[in-house]
Amino acid sequence: MRSELGVSLAYGLLATLGQSIVTGEFDKTGFPTEAELCVKFGASRTVMREAVKMLSAKGLISSRQRQGTRVEPVENWNLLDPDVLRWLMERPYSNKIFLEFAQMRLAIEPAAAALAAENQDRPAIASIREGLQAMIDHAGQPDLALKADIDFHVAILKASGNPFFWRLKPLITNALNLSIQLTNKIAGHMADIQAHESILVAIEKGDADTARRASEAILVESVNLIGKVQAA
Amino acid sequence: MRSELGVSLAYGLLATLGQSIVTGEFDKTGFPTEAELCVKFGASRTVMREAVKMLSAKGLISSRQRQGTRVEPVENWNLLDPDVLRWLMERPYSNKIFLEFAQMRLAIEPAAAALAAENQDRPAIASIREGLQAMIDHAGQPDLALKADIDFHVAILKASGNPFFWRLKPLITNALNLSIQLTNKIAGHMADIQAHESILVAIEKGDADTARRASEAILVESVNLIGKVQAA
DNA sequence: CTGGTTTTTAAATAGTATTTTTTTCTGTAA
DNA sequence: TTACAGAAAAAAATACTATTTAAAAACCAG
Lengths: 232, 232
Fold this sequence. Notes:
The structure is a homodimer. Chain A is mainly α. Helices cover 70% and strands 3% of the residues of chain A. In chain A, strand 1 (61-64) and strand 2 (68-71) form a beta hairpin. In chain A, helix 1 packs across helix 4 (82-90) and helix 7 (142-159) runs antiparallel to helix 9 (169-187). Chain A binds a DNA duplex through residues 1-2, 8-10, 33-35, 43-47, 49-50, 52, 63-69.
């Protein structure tokens, strides 16, 4: 049996099961046995075991012989996994996690901006500028502007030269897609081009402190905005 | 065939293959085919495929039909995965990654300390104090002091109340084990108890700014120390 | 450049091994 | 005779093996 979406069967099951778990579908009934899952999804045991292994690698479940497979408590879920975070953000009643995510960005991105100013990786800084230019060029087209906004922020992570920051790219890309849409929805809010530009200018000048503060300014604004959305 | 170490066969293979990949063992020869791996490790195809699936979930390899399995470029490896980071830190010539890791801590931990001061989660703050007390009590015993030091830092992440910070626990625990040993080795250096205590006091008082600065002080010191080790 | 061949992973199928819980049995002491 | 402790057996679930078929992509012959 082939999956409908072009992805492999195992990855299709991974997504289906992952979403079910974060929405609490197995909270009461407990997680099914391998055999039950195979029947339910019409997949072979081999494929099902691969999917289960990947879910347990993400911290969502754990399996033990004779005891079966159990959903792990939420605090063991790997929020830093892009899939896990997306599943969580897509489910209903996910307001809190948007705020917590914004708090984490507030720790990461100003530090990355400061490092980028020190690091002076010219090609990487050029892609920050490209992101900003795309934001300006597509100001009227929400989808393209969203993508450009994300590119801008991710390019700063790259320019920091620190692979730990750069590694957050898939996480941030994924989450910003949902996060920016949320803030734009309520207030008719649009990204502040000037604020973004002032980060870039500081990085280009090699002024780490100013870059840090400019990044902080945008993110504090973002945290406040999400707080407002939640109140509404 | 059962594994020697009590871990499951798939997890044993995961570790063996993961370490081989980060030390560059397959750089020249290319990654073996499933069949070759099965022969080499005497495992069944199913188990081998589970291990390969987990490695690809960590970004180290990718598989495509007919093309075989390939080692991904380093920038695709998931450094935020505790296993991947440990494998990288344990291999020779890993100095750079220690510095980069310290830079990331410098972004995260002061922010977590500030949030902890605002959050005032009493039980969590109590465990920070327990960590500090253990550092004092076991000052003469390197192993216990190391563990206490780690407990202290991790407890701050917990006290922040932000699950993204808390999620870094396995990563930080793993990496600090190797990192603190590195800094202690060279200089005959010991953890600075007073500096640690000043973070705790600020958190207890609810003074976010002071907590942030105290945490920064320790980590800047740590970054410098690692820089010195590299010079040596 | 086209169509078949080959290679390699993807998936399915069936069965064995192992572990751990639960139940049942049994022997002994009150 | 009953109660209980401990041992033995059964059962349930995952862990693992072995093999086969399918599909995709590269390769090669014509």
